[in-house]
Amino acid sequence: MTPAVRNPHDLSLMLETAKGICYYSGWVHRKWDPSYYDLYKTLFHEEFKESPHGFYLPFMYLYLLGYRPVVSLLEDDWSNYETIDEYIETTAGFFSTTRQIDDQMKDRIREYITPHTQDGKYLARSQVITGMMVWDVREQNTKP
Fold this sequence. Notes:
Helix 4 (84-95) crosses helix 5. The two termini are 31 Å apart. The protein has helices spanning 8-17, 34-44, 56-64, 84-95, 103-113, and strands at residues 21-31, 70-83, 121-136. Strands 1-3-2 form a three-stranded antiparallel sheet. The chain is built from five helices and three strands.
């Protein structure tokens, strides 16, 4: 991912300082482990609302500026064994985009996940689509 580029201004700075080839990567889509959605509903009594990922915005911005980035998409399934404490921290981070997570909430997350672990570990699975763009700042198409 390209964490330093979070808005049009950041992308403009990248273009201004570039001497040749630029690279950008970002999320196109991410489906978290099913337990995250179930736990969110259990804790907050509502469905987790997915937010759109912003890969298309930098692409459109570049395209409107006259660049024609080469785009590559990668679809993948990620899996990772996490200890209970790691799961709690990962899940708390996931939830913190929409909710305040305190120590009491982390205790409730622990109660939820502990029965689903084997030997103190949980196998978290995510489905992701990432996008990568490459373009040459010396090849800007200024024709309408």
